[in-house]
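Need the bound structure for flavin-adenine dinucleotide, inputs here:
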Amino acid sequence: ARSENCPPDVEQLGRATWTFLHTTAAYYPEKPTPNQRANMLTLIRSLPVLYPCTHCASDFGEEVKKSPPDVSGRVGLSRWLCERHNEVNEKLGKSKFNCAVEKLDERWKDGPDDGSCD
Ligand code: FAD
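Answer from helper R.:
Posting the output first, comments after.
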């Protein structure tokens, strides 16, 4: 088995990156300042340039061109990101995630009502 201390493979890097992006979107303000919006746009637009899986980065860049980031507030951003992640899921033959804000908040911010993540 591959040790925990090995450099991340494409799957581990992907999980860690999605965790960061979805969590950051879940806590993004409802009404971001112009500075927060500009920085979020920069963060998203940096991925096609810097993400260290070259084919992942270039495909993501194409998707971002087709669907410009919605940085207007946390609900729009969370949904936009969910849709982009679903495009990758589809490409990889993984199942799609329900992009309703309730589902996204449960997964990335609040946890389920049964308290199993408290
Ligand atoms: P992941 O897809 O990593 O998802 C982690 C968790 O997020 C899931 O368990 C689920 O609870 C939740 N989730 C799933 N879908 C959504 C959604 N739509 N919205 C919100 N939450 C969701 N891998 C490749 O092999 N080829 C690629 O071209 C490629 N491109 C990528 C581009 C980007 C920008 C990123 C960040 C990753 C990319 N990856 C790519 C990695 C790939 O998306 C997965 O991260 C990796 O295959 C591990 O998948 P996983 O099944 O562990 O779950």
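Comments: The pocket of flavin-adenine dinucleotide is lined by residues 10-11, 14-15, 17-18, 22, 47, 51, 55-56, 59-60, 82, 85-86, 88-89, 92, 94, 97, 104, 107 (CB under 6 Å). The chain has a mean pLDDT of 97.
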